[in-house]
Amino acid sequence: MSDSTFGHVPGIEVGALFPDRVALSLAGVHRPRRAGICGRAKEGAESIILNCAFVDDRDRGDSILYTGSGARHPKTGRQIGDQTLARSNLALAESARRRLPVRVSRGVGRGVWDPPLEGYRYDGLYTVQDYYAETGLDGYRIWRFVLEAVAGESRARPAPG
Fold first, then answer.
1. CA 49/CA 54 separation, integer angstroms
2. Which domains are assigned to the chain?
């Protein structure tokens, strides 16, 4: 039996603030303390962290172009190899196929839409509308995931312009 929770975590309001990844994990909003994607390939992804750690990420509030995981240098954050459609990337693809809601939490980061002043903020439910592979800015294959806020479920509003 799975311990995955899809949708909102009971008792956690959209806009809730958390001082760090440990607090997010303990609350059940995003269980992994390091990984950016929480999920299983056969079940789907239940949550992601968005802090634009990948140079290819694009955060527009209600619309997110999210870079999958894998082949990233641990210190520089740059892509050092091709990503594969496996593990957590496959979990996001499964969420697209099954139309499962994915919890999105934003952290402080370059390119983050309306970032929290510190820590992390739970910003509501999104669905993975599409996914595809392409060559990223660092010259390696990356998996891209197009997420859109579930109507009425996100605190995000489209960025102006």
1. 12
2. 17-149 (2.30.280.10)
